[in-house]
């Protein structure tokens, strides 16, 4: 059974936080959960909403269907009534609801408990009552969330939840019922003792950005310099939150130019370092990106896309920076672009990004977007390593120094062992000018060719090391997605009346040319969140294959499975 | 080591000599020295000093050096940049480095002109100076690097001159200073700045004493004669000192192995 819930209200009233508590209560009951919020670029006023999809089966994305809309203000009803099967709201708002309405005197209940703000909790209690889940997990979460507050406040919240729950139980009937997953559920058991029950710690509910933070910390990243920019900011603040626990230096810099240059300085010195930003900040980093390539300094750059150009839609989602990530900065040089498709990939591919950056001594871009950065998914705890084998840290070739040491020695694989400052007989200059094997500025023609080829040689070797993309299903019709659209396509495959296969690209650069060449006869359908189908252009450039069908969306909102399934069925 | 390729009579030769001399006298092993620069005539410096070097991009030497310092606070890091690099394109990084008080030595080669791009006006060009980008005279008032540094929180503010033998001594004091230290070097550029020659400097500079009082120091910085020597020095906690993560072991020496459960517990 799947339940799609939406909570909406005025920005600045904690709607998203309260909705996430509901999502987590479901997680603790063993259910699969996906949540995604839309909010405007302002702090107060304006309209916020959060979708939470709950199921006993895996959920990979939100849904455009709303089984129950929890409306905390009038605007929510005006905006979402039409797309919702039923509305849950305060009695004062019920008059304007068309169709099924569950009206609860939540404001009165809240006022009786001493504060109108409790109405949100009354409403969460009522939601749980409607779908038939008990209050145990919610109460635990309320105790945890308000642990630092007065006991009275915790008790009032618990009472509010109970009042809402009782009201719903006594007065309403609701068709969709959820039940906690049995403690022996095999699917939830992540731990080694297969016979035992699943434990709370086996599962986490995490966003893409937090998964990137976890991946960076796990990879031994010790330095991040960044400048806040939605939707990447929570990578910076996430790293800051854990900086004392994991000995990480976090520098909120004066601008993004400083961010990338500091990260390069730290990377040059031998520390695993990163920066994060969105398109606008990445524009400021362009020259630094080339600097990392030219000096062969490892650096990881997480870019979370939002629609542009310029400030664009600051808190919305899009996939319009693919080509920007691939081509920004002067001349051409190899850079790696990784586009994780879900939170698991955010965790594992971030670790791989650090290995690649150090092993191949080049810049690596992790390209996500607001949808993946902020949407939360329930997954097995990363520390169980069920999604992938643990990623071993590989620091690449590091030299202990030598007589006549050549930092940019031409080698077969293009990789030259690097020394870290502090190493005797390893002194060299990393120069942004073209340089010879020692690192000295050099303008000779032959040297320029040799050094350019050397840098590209590393890339060839890397391309061979990477595994091919995964193909889900077997059909002549193949939907191709990259980045955050992975989950939506997976959901669309579940509900689409017609059969299609699905390829998800997590590595955009180097591009899997051989793999695509094998698909030249297939009916390819590219799905992406931009106007010009940047991936199709890339496929044509790399393989000559002309993608016939493109499903494009550039309204600042992610795809949803229902509409996507409809679009796909027209093309297969 | 490469042989410098500056013009005959260029002040950068003397700045190079002063940097070499101070490092030698302070007996800092070359493996523990990192010279970071931007782009400009003087920014070729890292290639001529036996040390680690990073010749970055125009205007961005300070952030590279800051990242390197935080990554390995055992390194002695000297940053060199031209006046265009330091006070023009890199001006933002300069004022933030001052207030950050990061433990770096910043040597600026102030020839009041863009040398490498062949003679355009710079942020320290005097008003009215004719250059090929201001053929009718520069209209802006010049930056006063010393006043700027003092007001933005630098803890060591000095000025030297490329032709003056005391320069090495000033640089030595700057390296020894704990915190952000500025050595603004009045640099001869016989090719593109004919106005500020040695005679002009001799007439328009004066040796000064070190001040602890900000306002007195600013008064001297703003007086008609350009001060030479350490103008201002105070004690203040450095940025790197305030990070407990690196108080015992530099980041670069720390283990990469971590237990991620502590963080993931927040997502259960
Ligand atoms: C982003 C960028 N803009 C412009 C340049 C061209 N450029 C190189 S050096 C320079 C100015 C050099 O003047 P200054 O920093 O005073 O150093 P000097 O050559 O006088 O020592 C400029 C504008 C560049 N390299 N990068
Ligand atoms: S142009 Fe000026 S600063 Fe550049 S090398 Fe020549 S004299 Fe020195
Ligand atoms: Mg200059």
Protein traits:
heterodimer; A: 572 residues; alpha/beta; Pyruvate-ferredoxin Oxidoreductase, domain 3; Rossmann fold; 3 domains; 8-stranded mixed beta sheet; 7-stranded mixed beta sheet; globular; B: 268 residues; two-stranded antiparallel ribbon; 9 helices; 29% helix; binds thiamine diphosphate; binds iron/sulfur cluster; binds magnesium ion
List the helices and strands and how they pair.
The complex is a heterodimer of chains A (572) and B (268).
Chain A: E1 2-10, H1 15-28, E2 32-38, E3 47-55, E4 68-71, H2 74-80, E5 86-90, E6 100-104, H3 106-112, H4 119-131, H5 136-145, H6 151-171, E7 203-207, H7 208-218, E8 223-226, H8 233-241, E9 249-252, H9 256-269, E10 273-277, H10 279-284, H11 286-295, E11 299-305, H12 322-327, E12 336-338, H13 343-360, E13 363-369, H14 370-374, E14 376-380, E15 429-431, H15 445-465, E16 470-472, E17 477-482, H16 485-495, E18 501-505, E19 507-509, H17 513-517, E20 523-528, H18 534-543, E21 549-552, H19 561-571
Parallel strand pairs in A: 1-4, 4-5, 5-6, 8-9, 8-10, 10-11, 11-13, 12-13, 17-18, 17-20, 20-21
Antiparallel strand pairs in A: 1-3, 2-3, 2-14, 7-14, 12-19, 16-18
Helix pairs in contact in A: 1-4, 1-5, 3-4, 4-6, 5-6, 7-8, 7-13, 9-11, 16-19
Chain B: H1 12-25, E1 33-37, E2 52-55, H2 61-71, E3 76-82, H3 83-89, H4 91-100, E4 105-110, E5 113-114, E6 120-121, H5 145-152, E7 156-161, H6 167-176, E8 181-186, H7 198-204, E9 205-207, H8 214-221, E10 226-233, H9 261-264
Parallel strand pairs in B: 1-2, 1-3, 3-4, 4-8, 7-8, 9-10
Antiparallel strand pairs in B: 5-6, 7-10
Helix pairs in contact in B: 1-6, 3-4, 4-5, 5-8
